[in-house]
Each structure stands twice: as structure tokens, then as C-alpha cells.
Amino acid sequence: RLKAPSKNLRPALISLNLCQTSLGAEAGRHLAAFLARDRTLLNLDVSCNPLSSQGVCALLPQCARLRLLDIGDTGCKGEFIHSQLAAMMQQTTSLVRLSLARNQFDPKPLRRIARAVAGCQSLTSLSLEGTEMSTEGATMLVEALLASQVQSLTELDLSCNQLAQVEAATALAHMLVRYSTLHTLRLSQNALGDAGVFELAEAFDPTIAPGCELHTLELSRCRVGTAGAGHLMAKLANNERLRVLRLGDNFLDDSLDLELIDHLTHIHELQLTGNRLSYASLQRASQAVARNRQTIRDKEPCALRSEMHRMLFQETKLSAAKEQVHIDLAEVEERQTATNNAIRDLEHLRTTEAEARQQVQKKIQVEDMELGDMRQRREELAAKLAQTTKEYAQRQHDLRETLRQREQELTDLQVKSDDIERRLEARRREHPQELLNLKDRAKAAFEEAAQFQEHAKAMRQQLKALQEKGLIDFKP
């Protein structure tokens, strides 16, 4: 029968329920072979079958693709399957619900399984019902869950175990305070008693533990007395998270203060059957819970109206936002157009500037050439000027030398004239006739000297004219 699904030409199995079909260890291997070939199966339930640890170990390596796996009450033991189970949970990214109920798990393999559960980020529901878990096992599970980097578990079933010590309730209360994703906790058939419920109740006090998000709490058959239940209800009076509380088959009697039930305004389901409460007490509790449900139903239309008004207001804001978006888009388009125009103008300006730069460079080149020619002409003029200056200096030197010679000659003539005058005076006294002759000669000499002076004066004027014409001062 297990080979029939593999022979189907168009397999479309999503869920396979084989609960209570007397499958043995050999069936586990056949199921593993089927899962190795199949790519559509998501949910598998093989609970209540004598698969044993051998069959479960053969099955687990092929279960990494499943979303739901139930191997409860299959006769497997934690010491034999914990390695395969931990390896599968490390590989899976799709497993959402896992049931290990009614199988035996000792503390040592449970520690590794707890670490694997804490590391499986996709797992949201875990059932460890009836696994003979002790206080040590519960403590290890809580420590592993609180140490996990990602909190994903929303449902945890620890019913029908051996959680009878206060330490187990303390560890669970600590988990409720810090593990904020847990919504459902089932602790039925654990002998917690009033002491354990007192520890759990502290986790529901919003002033002490505001992070508790639990919605459903099951404490049926937990040997809870009136004192423990009353303390729990007192702590739940201000808790707005818990909706379902099951306290059936405990030791509650009519000494329970029913005012505490009236204060549980957020509880939608309260199970108190199987206790020592009178019919009147049960009716009052039922009426209080029904009143809570009616209050919630009455609040829903008001909430809907409020939500409608809020949505209308949000729609108005959305319309205004859309209008503003259109305005902003128009402004953005306008600015984009202006930006494009500016870019075009900038390109035109750059082109014009490049052309002007080229023209300026050409003009600079022409002016550099003209400047080079002017520098060359200036150098030629400077050379000519130096040559002319040298020639003027030489002519000035020559003229000055000629002037000195003429002046020397004039001085010599004056000396001679003085000497002649003295001699003439002497001769005048001696020879008047000779004096007359000498006078005539002196007169001629004076006339010649006057001519020399006029000639020297003319040469000075000519030199001065040459100096003014050359714009250079040739004075030593």
C-alpha cells in the first residue's frame, strides 16, 4: 500500500495522514524512499504507529521539506533519534509544526533536541506532550529557547509530563516574561499545584512582566486549589492579552471569590468543569465570560465605525497627499525642464566660450608675432642707436679736441700778442715808425683772432645743434 502513491503518474499529495495504521520500522524506510522522490508532500502524520526508533531514524533525513511532521506515539526514544532529529531541524527552512508527543526523552538527548528546536527559525508549534519530561528537561528547554537568536515558537505543549516541582513553574514563568512570541502554552496533567501556579501567575502581571503575549493557558488536571486559582485570577485582572484559560478537573470549590471572575473582562473562554464548584458558581462564571464575549462583539461595530472614520480621514489625507504629489511632480517636471534648458544654455555657452577662446588664442598668436617683430625692430634700433651714439661720441671727442687746439692756438696768439705789445711799446719809444707798423700788424693779428673766435663760436653752435638733433648729451 505504501508503494501506491509512488506509482501515481500525476502525484499531487500535499498531506498524508497515516495515524494508527500499524506501520512498523520497515514502513519508515519505504516512507523515506517515497519522500526522496516526492516534491509535493508538505504534511505527514505517522503518529500512533509502532515505527520504533529504527523506523523514525530512517524517515527523519527525508523530512526537511515538510511543513508539518507528527511522529507522536511511535515508540521511539530520544537517545536513539536525537542526532537525526537535530540534523533534520538544522537543514529545514520550512518545518512549522512538529509533534514528538508520547515518546520517551531523557534529559541528555532532550538537551540537544532543545538546542535544535531553538535554532529552527521556521518552527512555530512544538508538542512534547507525554514525553516524561522532568523539571530538569523543562529547565533545559527554557534555557535553549531564551538563548535563541530568533524567537519564532508560538505554541508549546508540555502536557502530561512530570513537571511537579516549583522550579519547573519558575522556569516557565521566566520564559513567558522574555519569550514574547509564545501565544499558547499547554501544561495540563502536570502536578504544579498552588505553588507552581503562584510562580506562573507573576508572569501575567503587566506591571511586572509587560512582555508576556500569551493568549491561551491550559492548566487542567494540575492539582490547582482555590488559593492558586484565586491568585492567578487576581494577576489576570489587569492582563489584556490572555483570552483562554482552562482550569478544568482541579480542586476549586465554592470558596473561590467569584468577584475575581467578574474582573476578568478580557477572558473569552474560561473552563472550570470537573471542579468542586456548585452549579450556581459555574453559571455565574459562564455568564461573566458570555458578557465578556458580548462586550467584545458590541465593541466591534464601534471599533469598525472608528476605523471607518479613521480610514476616511486617512483617505482625505491620502487625497491631499496625492494632490501634493501631483503638485510636486509638476514642480519636479518644471525644474527638470529648467534644468534641461540650463544644460542646453550651458552647452551653448561652453561652445561660444570655446570659439571665443580660439579667436582670442589666434589673436594672441598674431599679437605675439607682431610683438616678436617689434622686439626685433627694437633690437635693431637699439643697435643702430648704440652705433650712432658711438659715432656721436667720437665726433664730439674730435670736435672738442679741435676746439682745444684752436683755444691753445688762440692762447698762444694772445701771449704772442702781449709779447708783441710789450715789444711794440718798447719799440714805440724807440722807433715811432716801427710802432706804426707794429700797430698795423697787431690790428691784423686782432682781426685774425676775432675771426678765430667767430669760427670757434660757429663750431660750438654747430656742436650744440648736433647734440639737440641726436637727443643725447655728449658731455663728459
Silhouette: rod-shaped
The secondary structure category is: alpha/beta
* Percent in strands: 5-15%
Weakly predicted, low-confidence segments: none
Cross-sheet strand order for the largest sheet? 1-2-3-4-5-6-7-8-9-10
Largest sheet: 10 strands, parallel
The separation of the N and C termini measures 142 Å
Report the helical percentage.
55-70%
Order of helices and strands: HEHEHEHEHEHEHEHEHEHEHH
Provide a descriptive summary of the structure in words.
The chain is α/β, with parallel strands linked by helices. It has helices at residues 4-7, 25-37, 52-59, 78-91, 107-119, 135-147, 166-178, 193-201, 226-236, 258-262, 279-430, 432-470, and strands at 15-17, 43-45, 68-70, 97-99, 125-127, 155-157, 184-186, 216-218, 244-246, 269-271. Strand 1, helix 2 and strand 2 form a beta-alpha-beta unit. Helix 6 runs parallel beside helix 7. The mean pLDDT is 88.
